[in-house]
Amino acid sequence: MKTLNNNVSRRRFLQFGAYGLMAVPLAGLGWTTAAQASMEQLDPESDTAQALAYTHDAESTEHDQHQEGSHCLNCMLYSDPSAQEWGPCAVFPGKQVSANGWCTAWVAR
């Protein structure tokens, strides 16, 4: 009898463990979405933004390194290409940049 109860207990433990492993990635999706929603937009007047010649509108920049058609949305450093208006950038942690923006750190995706 005692062996049977141990097997049932072990089986339940493995089931709950499997459910827990499946739940971890799904919970992570909710946390990243919530974290991105709470990030503020990058101020183009900040020291970091000015050092990298960041602008919210790539078409308005007259920087000599700017290439036609380059903007944050098609940059390798733009962390979430599915974010179509504002999204995270590896160069400006904790801030969101405009998908239509540009800076001198731009790297083709």
What does this structure look like?
It comes from Ectothiorhodospira marina. Specific class of high-redox-potential 4Fe-4S ferredoxins. Functions in anaerobic electron transport in most purple and in some other photosynthetic bacteria and in at least one genus (Paracoccus) of halophilic, denitrifying bacteria. Residues 36-109 form the High potential iron-sulfur proteins family profile domain. The structure is a single chain. The chain is mainly α. A 3-stranded mixed sheet has the order 1-3-2. It has helices at residues 2-38, 47-51, and strands at residues 40-41, 86-88, 95-98. A hairpin with a 6-residue loop joins strand 2 (86-88) and strand 3. It has 2 domains: 1-38; 40-109, Irregular (High-Potential Iron-Sulfur Protein, Chain A), CATH 4.10.490. It is elongated, with a radius of gyration of 23 Å.
